[in-house]
Amino acid sequence: MQYEIKELPEVRVAYLRYKGPFGAAIGDFWHQVVTPWQNAYGLADKVTYGVAQDDPNTTPASECRYDACVEVAAGYEIKPPAKEAHIPAGRYAVARFRGTGADVPAAWGAFFGQLHAEGKADAGVCFERYAADYLLDQETGVFEAELCVPVKA
């Protein structure tokens, strides 16, 4: 998988948490819960992030946590049910992803595997980053994102 090494700044986010099995349910969570919340709180057309808090290979599916995040300005007042978090600044390997929700786990597996084989992967927050003008093809379910993994200096 091709990737670039980028220095990314810290990002303040408002997030809603999903708990349960990863996969199609996360897409449903974005569509049914996160997008209406974004629209209600003036957060549409912002850069968004998906942050898996648990490894589904080692955590029971019912206990897996995933944060659907929206980038917010320093002065933005985050109101419940959302919570505040920060995606840390750092050096990341960034790969472009294009596919469906069903393709995401394999893409992450390939990317992690490659970075570990190259000895570059580092501990820290891994995330998907979605452009402010994110589009999901309603017919095919195809979308684009960036997969971001911390790497050693």
UniProtKB/TrEMBL annotation:
Residue span, AraC effector-binding domain: 1-152
Xref: Pfam families: GyrI-like
Xref: SUPFAM superfamilies: Probable bacterial effector-binding domain
InterPro entries: AraC_E-bd, GyrI-like, Reg_factor_effector_dom_sf, SmbC-like
Source superkingdom: Bacteria
Gene3D superfamilies: Regulatory factor, effector binding domain
Designated name of the protein: AraC family transcriptional regulator
Species assigned in the record: Duganella sacchari
Source taxonomy: Bacteria, Pseudomonadati, Pseudomonadota, Betaproteobacteria, Burkholderiales
